[in-house]
Amino acid sequence: MSGRRLEGKIVIITGGASGIGAESVRLFTEHGAQVVIVDVQDELGQNVVASVGEDKASYYHCDVTNETQVENAVKYTVEKYGKLDVLFSNAGVIETFVSILDLNLDEFDRTMAINLRGAAAFIKHAARVMVEKGTRGSIVCTTSIAAEISGTAPHGYTTSKHGLLGLIKSASGGLGKHGIRVNGVAPFGVATPLVCNGYFNLEPNVVEEMTLKSANLKGIVLKAHHVAEAALFLASDESAYVSGQNLAVDGGYTVVKP
To answer: Hey, what CATH class is 10-248 in?
Structure first.
């Protein structure tokens, strides 16, 4: 990609302190965006701000399961920058992989609260200010190949991502009349802290080797920046007539291997 594709755009990235979110902050600011990083990992979030420059990004502590905090994060953004053009709803968790017979419903509820309810809350409040200000905005959500197929992730995560895809489609229908686009970006396995620490408990190189062996497209290892580049396309005006879609960044896995 060349050029500055988000010049003058104001962007919220949830889960922006690490992994795909942090990589997206770096890429989006390189393309001219002003980014508000929303996360609960305060030190990591401030480190990302420092790495890109305080003139390009700021950090706001927000638990996506708390709607008041979500609303306040959106208000902070609009008060600081005057508008909101793009929401990248990327915050997520993944629980332990167990049999459905041993399903921990407390873990299930937490996964749903963050991955699905949190996204719904941010879509609600981001879209409200976009509509109020007449902004033809873009909303992008990190889904997963687990939004399309099963067996690749724990039950709660798979359920939440299927639900998120439904929300994307439903929201795109409701917001189209306001000129607001809603899409998903669906990665295959990326060796992020979420996956390495919270799921596999393995080093990144081991996770990358595992995913490379099971991948359909050979000769390339999926990295966070590949997902960030797909999100950049959906956030930018280059996808001006794309809405209600789930862009797979999976090397064809969901087409060939399900």
So the answer is: alpha beta
